[in-house]
Amino acid sequence: MNQTHEQRLTALESEAFRNNTAGFSDPGDQVTLLRGAVNELSADLREHRHDTKEQFAGVNQRLDGIDGRLDGIDGRLDGIDGRLDGIDSRLDGMDRRFDGVDGLLRQILAVVTPATPEVVRQHIGAPTG
Question: Where are the domains of the chain?
């Protein structure tokens, strides 16, 4: 006999109306009616609390799954960051080697070319591009 809160309340109100029209001769009848109403409301609250706990458990489970996936993504991003650091240091090394080669080429150019100011301006000081 699963009745909704509204159905139980309607049944209690109808019973109260019938009992009121018949007249309560005993105050115990009124107490019994109130006790029944309190018991019904208590049952409703317990059912609502149980439903709410189940809903929160489902939401918490989903959030735990999302947390796990985000942790996995975070780990992958850390790996990518490490690889990019390695690439960055290799590029820095290449930069140093190119600077060294550039210096050697300037030395070779200085030895091969007569060192007149005009030649120096043409080869060393002239912007390339």
Answer: 7-125
